Amino acid sequence: MPAQRSSATNTVPGVLLAALRRHPQALVRFAVWSVLEVLPLLLSGYGVAHALDDGFLAGRPATGAAWLGVLAVAVLAGALATRRVYRILAQIVEPFRDHLVDNVVGGALQRSTVLGGRPDSGAVARLTHQVEVVRDNFAGLLLLTTGFLVSTVGAVIGMATLTGVVGLLVLPPLLAGLTVFLVSLRSMMARQRDHVLTDEAVAESASTVAHSLRDVVACGAGDRACAQVQCHVDAHADAERTLARMTAIRTLSVAIGGWLPAVGLLFAAPWLLATGSTLGTIAGALVYLTQGLMPALKSLVDGLGAGGLKLVVTLGRLVEAGERPVPPAMAQVRAPQGYDLTLDGVTFSYGRHAEPVVNHVDLLIPQGQHLAMVGPSGAGKSTLAGLLAATHIADRGSVRLGGVPVGDLDSQTLVSHRVLIPQEAYVFAGTIGENLRYLHPAATGTELETVVDTLGLRSVVTRLGGYDAVVDPGTLSAGERQLIAVARAHLTPAPVLILDEATCHLDPIAEERVERVLAARGGTLIIVAHRISSALRAQRIVLMDGANMIAGTHGELLANAPLYRDLVGLWDSGQGPVVGAQW
Questions:
Q1: Is residue 541 part of a domain?
Q2: How do residues 398-409 score in pLDDT, each as one tens digit?
Q3: Are 402 and 344 in contact (CB under 8 A)?
Q4: At what angle do helices 260-267 and 279-287 cross, to 10 degrees?
């Protein structure tokens, strides 16, 4: 399924501008308080010049002290403005972070849940690390750029009030230093992008190995798996070292634009004194340079060269990874005719070079049939259930629902026709009523009461405090969570229910009650059996043993399938699987 193309608002500048436009009032207040924040700098050189020329050097220490007092008051005012700036900054930055989190989570979920989608392991790095990198550096960039502009303008105005000649000594090297830095930004950006991508590759490869640890150990592939992860780690380390070397360019830019004007001013001091400038004027100009212009330039260069590049590259990666799949055009969607399930020559494996788990399977499940799947662990029962539910896409062959290939159905049509209940039941932090109505919000109170009573969930609802009580999933037993998930599925109008060992934590009596209630509900019921007794209650049984798949009734399989006879014999002799066993 193709991804959505980026619009103007899905480019890095577009995303940043949109974040600023969402809070215009906060942005105006931020700018105003930033100007007030630079008040101490604006008065610093002017105050020092007059404190020397009109005060201490003129033999009037009281006047000099008064000018220094004015600077002290300005510093206090600037501190108050700084406090306000940070408070306003949070009103701009924190909503931006929340917006990024929504995009990352939404994009990862949509890409992973579309037909044929794969889990997006890289989303972990984006959510836990890259979003915070963007948030922190977006805040830093706002402070740095605003501070540089205001400080530079303030310093230039201050020097102009002292003597215009100083500006001629300061501006050319300042512009030269900025030019060197800006020219090198493209190369820095490429190195920063390499750093981000290798960081993401490390997270994805480590996650893949961790989730496949059992298979890695079973195949004796530990060294190979470590070597694959180590390759990504080494690439990330090389990217970090290359990025560190770019610091030299930033240092050169600061030396040209910041230190060179100060050195030039000192060398020009005799000439300035000879042409009428005072010691106070030269001292004030040095204050503007060393306390205003140089720190602002260094902060800007260091900030843009580190945080700014991280912001642009990391946000660019989030924008790319945030592209969401485009759903099929409505004109292409065909409505299923009934809800027969048909598998025609279906083959599926979990990797291009892996052995097929399901190999050339043909199966017809007529609508309304009660079917059970049994077989040893690893035979492919859950995989077959996933193919029927369209959570897996066949490598070859076709899966049809109501005569329509599942790949041609939009997500809403699939949701309205089938429900898959996995072994690990999902109960979220909300009320009992919200959990039960999750798949069918329009369910009436009468429907809710009926389902709760027939499935034996009444004692759980009463103990927790009724339908409006907020439930903590951690306080429920595994069996109680499974009962809630089954009741949720029962309430839906979907005609096909698929239970993948969804009652394995229930006792045999509760499991039988659940299966009989779901069978009486109507529609198709497909059960990946945890106990052989589930097969005995089904109209039809599919036996899987890895190499072969046989379908038939209980009597037919007893007559034709030795493995099935063994399973039934173990159960009848009291040696059958108990709760927690796996088929």
A1: yes
A2: 999 999 998 888
A3: no
A4: 170
- Domain enclosing residue 133, as ranges: 8-321
The Cα 129–Cα 124 span in angstroms is 8
Q: In 437-582, where does DSSP find H-type helix? A: 445-454, 458-464, 478-491, 508-520, 532-536, 554-560, 562-572
Task: Report if residue 332 sits inside a domain.
Answer: no
Give the integer Cα–Cα distance in Å for 406 and 394. 10
Query: The CATH number of the domain where 467 resides is what?
Result: 3.40.50.300
Cα of 276 vs its chain's centroid, Å: 64
Name the 3-class secondary structure at 447. helix
Q: What is the pLDDT of residues 304-354, one digit of tens each?
A: 777 777 787 788 878 877 666 555 454 456 788 999 999 999 999 887 777
Rounded Cα–Cα distance for residues 249 and 189 (Å): 13
Nearest by Cα to 487 from 418, 427, 411, 416: 427
pTM for this predicted structure: 0.58
Cα separation, 361 vs 549, in Å, equals 8
* Selection from 88, 85, 77 nearest residue 42 by Cα: 77
The helix/strand/coil state of 212 is coil
- Distance of CA 22 to CAs 43, 97, 196, 241, 436, Å? 35, 13, 28, 38, 37
CB atoms within 10 A of CB 113: 12
Cα 531 from Cα 402, distance rounded (Å): 30
**Which residue has 């150990």 as its token pair?**
217
Is residue 381 within 8 Å of residue 460, measured between CB atoms? Answer: no
Strand-pair category, 370-374 with 524-528: parallel
Q: Is 295 helix (H, G, I), strand (E, B) or coil?
A: helix
For residue 579, tell me if it sits in a domain. Answer: no
Q: Looking at the structure, tell me whether residues 253 and 285 fall in a common domain.
A: yes
Q: How far apart are CA 516 and CA 138, in angstroms?
A: 58
Task: Tell which of 321, 356, 384 closes a domain.
Answer: 321
How far apart are the C-alpha atoms of 578 and 583, rounded to whole Å?
11
- Beta strand pairing status for 470-471 and 430-431? antiparallel
